[in-house]
Write a structure and sequence with these properties.
- The complex is a heterodimer of chains A (380) and B (168).
- Chain A is of the alpha+beta class and 380 residues long.
- In chain A, 48% of the residues lie in helices and 13% in strands.
- In chain A, a hairpin with a 2-residue loop joins strand 4 and strand 5.
- In chain B, 35% of the residues are buried.
- By secondary structure, chain B is α/β, with parallel strands linked by helices.
- A 5-stranded mixed β-sheet of chain B has the order 1-2-5-4-3, covered by helices on one side. A two-stranded parallel ribbon of chain B has the order 6-7. In chain B, strands 8-9 form a two-stranded antiparallel sheet.
- The radius of gyration of chain B is 18 Å and the shape is elongated.
- Classes of the chains: A alpha+beta (380), B alpha/beta (168).
Chain lengths: 380, 168
């Protein structure tokens, strides 16, 4: 520690202050807590303290049936519940060797991409709010509201969907819903440019984020940073393209990466920009899916008493917060033997201790927002 | 690279330490001796033809019938796009294994979670505290024989009867 800081001025001395930030703090995105050691406004250390939202979802997996566990996966990440649904169902399908109905696969992709847009809207909206721009948050939530309405139309729920089932999806998407999704896309695509004018290229916003807490590619590998945060470091890596699943190989979309256009490669601004661009890519995917939605059943025939053969499988999918892993072990009974959910926020949270040293306290808020960590996903 | 070749490389480098390969399953895995795990992982990370850059997941599965806790490591290489699964069997009474913190920093939190929920002790770990549960929690809940405490901090953990019925 720098001794000169402590002895500045005759008879005066400063001491490190230990502050508890959270668990109820508006800018920590749910119930996260940091033990922050500061020297004035400069942060010495920010030690994350997680676990306030632990609901033992993994243990519940051993107590309920395979079908019965799907609604619980929703709660693992309630801002992007569709992905956890899909991850668990894909694991169960791979164990039992079930082929998913083709229309069901398209319905899944439509639902997931809508959910990705909704989740990213929350991410960029709260990002603006966290560093002092309230207006974009209201705008983002307004669009998200439309997506919630669409989701309600698709599956009857607005947040925890329980839509994707083993073998396909619970409800088929009707032509009327397809029209309304197209309407939404027609409305939403120009709005992204509006956001860019309002927030992304706002000088204050850029100055606030450029060069702040860049993550190098080596650090990203060491700490296993995934998803948009990894792509912001310049690595073109997306599980939808690189470990293909569902019908993503048939769809065309770009993978936005960080370029360091306003500051350093992998800084907060890059992480923000990757999410903005990803929403546009999701729109492209949605349009293709709506155009090529095949006819047929939306769910394959699956036994009610679902008993996959003994074995284990590790499924990785690209959730809104990156690589979501489902490690599922079956012992051939009606209940899963072990369900493990590996989430992107958990590892993203672990890097904060390292990269937050020496930054300003206000930048910690920007860092948390830019990593898009989500308390339910960390604690499960 | 296929799991078989990766196994061949490891067997050549650490003879007798890699107990076996199982590749007739959905995800092929290797059984590794507990004392060789750190060296094996460092080798897998640094070998130019393997380059496992990330520790994708670290978790534990409890097998009370066989008296063992199985630590499962999922590795992945971005460069060559190949995965591998390593497994280590530990005795249930005193599960101890060296930490992988020196190889991948991500292991730090994964190991804290494994310690918290399964009670596996990672030797040499810099900060082995509970992570998800409170510090004064008793027991390791994801073990199959875990019995819930009747109360925590004066709060009863008993549920309403309806919920009990829905559970197995």
């Amino acid at each position: 520690m720098d001794e000169t800081l402590h002895t500045e001025g005759e008879g005066f001395h400063t001491e490190d202050m230990t502050i508890s930030m959270g668990p109820q703090h508006p800018s920590t995105h749910g119930v996260l807590r940091f033990v922050v050691k500061t020297d004035g406004e400069v942060m010495r250390e920010a030690i994350p303290d997680v676990g306030y939202l632990h609901r033992s979802i993994e243990k519940i997996g051993e107590k309920v049936t395979w079908h019965g566990y799907v609604p619980y996966t929703d709660r693992a990440d309630y801002l992007a519940a569709m992905f956890a649904n899909q991850g668990f169902c894909m694991a169960a399908e791979k164990l039992a060797g079930i082929e998913v109905a083709r229309r069901g696969e398209f319905c899944r992709v439509i639902a997931c991409e809508l959910n990705r847009i909704a989740s990213h809207l929350i991410a960029v909206g709260t990002f603006g709010q966290d560093i002092g721009a309230i207006t974009p948050f209201i705008h983002a939530l307004r669009e998200r509201e439309t997506i919630n309405d669409l989701m309600e139309e698709i599956c009857g729920a607005r947040l925890t969907y329980n839509y994707i089932r083993i073998g396909g999806v619970g409800y088929d998407i009707t032509p009327g819903t397809c029209d309304r999704i197209t309407q939404f896309l027609d409305h939403f695509e120009p709005i992204v440019d509006e956001y860019n004018r309002l927030l992304s290229y706002n000088k204050i916003f850029i100055e606030r984020l450029a060069h702040v807490t860049p993550i190098t590619r080596e650090d990203a590998f060491q700490y296993n940073i995934v998803g948009p945060n990894l792509r912001a470091c310049g690595l073109k890596w997306d599980i939808r393209r690189d470990i293909p699943y569902s019908v993503y190989p048939e769809l065309e979309f770009n993978i936005p990466v960080g370029t360091g256009e306003k500051g350093t490669l992998g800084d907060c601004y890059d992480r923000y920009m990757v999410r903005m661009e990803e929403m546009q890519e999701s729109c492209k995917i949605l349009r293709q899916c709506l155009k090529t939605l095949p006819k047929g059943p939306a769910i394959a025939k699956v036994a009610r008493k679902f008993k996959p053969p003994a074995g284990e499988v590790y499924i990785r999918i690209e959730s809104a917060r990156g690589d979501m892993g489902f490690y599922v072990v079956s012992d051939g009974s009606e209940y899963p033997y072990r369900v493990r959910i590996r989430t992107g926020s958990f590892t993203a949270m672990s890097i904060i201790d390292k990269i937050s040293r020496g930054i300003m306290v206000a930048d910690l808020v920007a860092l948390i927002a830019s990593l898009d960590v989500d308390a339910p996903e960390i604690d499960r | 690279m296929e799991a078989k070749e990766i196994y061949g490389r490891l067997e050549q480098r650490f003879p007798g330490k890699v107990a076996g390969l199982k590749d007739d399953v959905l995800d092929p895995f290797l059984m590794v001796e507990p004392q060789a795990i750190v060296e094996a992982c460092r080798f897998l990370r640094d070998e130019p033809e393997l380059k496992f850059e990330i520790l994708s997941d670290l978790t534990v599965v409890d097998f009370p019938k066989e008296e063992k806790l199985q630590v499962v490591y999922h590795l992945y290489s971005y460069t060559f796009r190949h995965p591998i699964v390593l497994k280590v069997d530990l005795p249930r009474e005193e599960p101890r294994i060296s930490t992988l913190e020196g190889v991948w920093k991500a292991a730090n939190w994964f190991e804290r979670e494994a310690f918290d929920l399964f009670g596996v002790v990672f030797e040499g770990h810099g900060d082995l505290r509970r992570i998800l549960l409170p510090e004064d929690w008793i027991g390791h809940p994801l073990r199959k024989d875990y019995v819930e405490q009747e109360e925590y901090d004066g709060i009863s953990t008993e549920r309403a009867p309806l919920v009990e019925k829905l559970l197995r």
